[in-house]
Amino acid sequence: MYQSPRRLCSALLLRDAPGLRISSLAPGPRRPLAPPVLRPRPASPRLQAAASGAGRSRPGTVSSMGNGTSRLYSALTKTLNSSAAAQHPEYLVSADAEHLEPIDPKELLEECRAVLHTRPPRYQRDFVDLRRDCRSSHPPIRVMQWNILAQALGEGKDNFVQCPVEALKWEERKCLILEEILAYQPDILCLQEVDHYFDTFQPLLSRLGYQGTFFPKPWSPCLDVEHNNGPDGCALFFLQSRFKLISSTNIRLTAMNLKTNQVAIAQTLECRESGRQFCVAVTHLKARTGWERFRSAQGCDLLQNLQDITQEAKIPLIVCGDFNAEPTEEVYKHFASSSLNLNSAYKLLSPDGQSEPPYTTWKIRTSGECRHTLDYIWYSRHALSVTSALDLLTEEQIGPNRLPSFHYPSDHLSLVCDFSFNEGPDELL
Ligand SMILES: NC(=O)C1=CN([C@@H]2O[C@H](COP(=O)(O)OP(=O)(O)OC[C@H]3O[C@@H](n4cnc5c(N)ncnc54)[C@H](OP(=O)(O)O)[C@@H]3O)[C@@H](O)[C@H]2O)C=CC1
Ligand SMILES: [Mg+2]
Asked: Ligand 1 pocket, 286 CB below 6 A?
């Protein structure tokens, strides 16, 4: 397959030919690139998963011990029964991850692919190399931003009129989401619309070596949906092998001095390799047209909180979010011109580095087609550099029925960037 010099290796190896499985994890640019391995579809994908030596664990991810296949099978099937969290709405009480056995990411990926074997091939997205002069001696920090679509909203409220209900079945959609996370292997994962934290993402991701935090919306619209799985909210995960948690703040955003239904999580982390500290935040601002001033006020409140947490920008910052705002909106302009000195990472994919992508979400509702740029990864431009970013899906790949679909689990695309700390005079704010 041809790849332009700026393209790095294929990230999600998902064009399964009939009778063949493609198996490999997606290394980022800092990792040696292994081409996809095509091999015959095994009689038992789960046995194959246990036996497979293809792919690589990332440094810091844990390897399985003993009978990985059966443990993994039980891990995944356990998450299929998700009513427990809805029956026990102690949303802020975390499961005791210490007692859960580690999972090998390769095995979980194979397990997901086995569940998804009837789905159409997923599309490949490539990392675009943005390194100008990368002087960092430490491995980059990979950050994923993703509104994964709350299950209750997708099935009960969103009205994706061109998306068949079967495409939204949680048992399979969950595996599509996990497959995407496992393919890109982020060091930091910032999610919105998470309504399966305690029964799915927290237990599975903690077994992959992540530490997670969840902050639900106070009045989640999910709770209005029959058979909901609890409130949706923001979740922030980081790899414990790479970072140490220094501080964590759950923020209920205010607008015009009133508490709102929108939230954020901000954490200060320390890199274990370099000892450098930085702050990462995740948020999901108020949706819908007519709420532009409200979003703007929420953005100002978040910026104020981040000023305090970063000690007036002394600590480098990464902010991920579904801002529900096009770049023309006031809240975007507040972020672009803040004294925190932020840049939006995905602008760097444009030829002049000045334009946001044409869309990060694309869906068809009863009101018609909704194609918008709403999701962003902001970063401290003087302290950090974006060394690569995952390209978006093309219109053709997204398809005429748009998102979500049988081959993509959310109406929002994931954004993934690799960051390095600037070394030298640039890092001074
Ligand atoms: N019980 C109570 O007293 C209260 C209950 N509520 C509940 O909360 C809800 C509002 O919550 P709030 O957080 O302000 O919600 P938002 O307006 O922020 O939207 C909530 C979700 O709806 C999605 N959405 C956006 N546009 C549409 C659309 N056109 N059709 C369907 N879904 C859409 C958004 O997805 P995306 O971001 O991907 O666009 C978002 O995740 C109320 O509808 C009510 O159900 C709220 C306050 C009090
Ligand atoms: Mg939504």
From this structure: yes
Range name among 61-70, 349-358, 403-412 with the lowest pLDDT average: 61-70
Q: Which amino acid is at 315?
A: I
Instruction: Give the model confidence (pLDDT) of 216-235 as tens digits.
Output: 999 999 999 999 999 999 99
Distance 156 CA to ligand 1 centre (A): 12
**What ipTM describes this predicted complex?**
0.94
- 141-421 maps to which CATH number? 3.60.10.10
Q: Where are the domains of the chain?
A: 141-421
**What's the whole-model pTM score?**
0.83
Residue 75's pLDDT is 52
Percent of the chain with pLDDT over 70: 75
CA of 158 from ligand 2 middle (Å) equals 7
Please report how many Cα atoms fall inside a 13 Å half-sphere around the Cα of residue 92, on the Cβ side: 5
Ligand 1, atom 41, residue with closest C-alpha = 193
Instruction: Tell me how far apart the terminal alpha carbons of the chain are, to the nearest angstrom.
Output: 42
* Whether residue 70 has pLDDT greater than 90: no
Q: Is 322 in the pocket of ligand 1 (CB under 6 A)?
A: yes
Q: Whose Cα sits closest to atom 26 in ligand 1?
A: 288
| Cβ atoms of residues 426 and 135 within 8 Å | no
Query: Looking at ligand 1, which residue's alpha carbon is closest to its atom 16?
Result: 287
- What is the chain's Cα-based Rg? 20
